[in-house]
Each structure stands twice: as C-alpha cells, then as structure tokens.
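At this stage, I put together one protein's amino acid sequence and its backbone structure tokens, which the following lines show:
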Amino acid sequence: MRRWKIMIMGLLTAVTAVVGPAAVVAPDASAGTSCSPSPSVSDPPCVQMVGSTPDCKICPAGEWCSLLIVQSKPITAAMTVSYATIDGTAVSGVDFAGIRDGRTTIPAGSTRSSFTVQVFRSLPGTPSKIFYAVLTGVSTGTIGNSRVEVHIPASR
C-alpha cells in the first residue's frame, strides 16, 4: 500500500513540475470526465483528449504517435490548446521524445487538432511501457478528459 502511495505522489509531483501551478487542468483528469455530447449554445467550448479508445492510445516503438484533441463545438475564433507528456514506465528521452510545453491551435469553425510524439525504437524483448499525454490549458472554454494513457507495446 505504501509503495502505491509513493508512486501516486511521485506522479502528482511530476504533473505539478511539468504543468505548473497556473495551468488549467480538469480537477480529476483520471476520472475520465467528458465534454457534453450535445452542448447547448450557451455552454462554453469544451476540449478533451481522445485516444484509440476514449482514454487509451497504442503507439508502437519506432513510430510517430498522433494524439487527437477534440472540441465540443465549433467556435468563431481559433482556440489555443496547451499540452505536455508525463513519464510513466516509459521515460522521456529514453523511450519517447517528451514534450514539456506544447501548443496547438484549433482553427475557427473547426473542432479538431492533433499533435505528435516520437516513440523511439527499442531493443527486442523490451517490455511494454506507458506514458501520459495531458492537456494543460486552453485559451477559452474548459477542459474535459484531459489525459490519455499512451501504451508502447513490448518489442519482439
């Protein structure tokens, strides 16, 4: 139990170090809070990460991993979205090219943008590993599901 508590506290410390205190992050990103599937006209735009399944993405070693950001409804002005990666069992600089402070823009009238993370080649027999891609802020609106767990399958 103590080991899990230390691991969780370590992850929270890593999130704080990468994201910083001023970032806008969903209160409980791990809960999978989603944007409303049918927002009303008065609802602020909501942005969320989307994986192969809602909060998981598989990215083989030696490839570029594309991660999708989806907005709940088109708006009349472009929206800037900030993102980062956080180490899990996969380590930035060893297993993938980490991103500390990335930004992408969802153009006016659109609802999607994406960013890529390079996943490095690994030696045969390397076990599967994970890291996290997180949304850290938006120029307008709110953040729904702010995290995707990225899986790097075991190398053969």
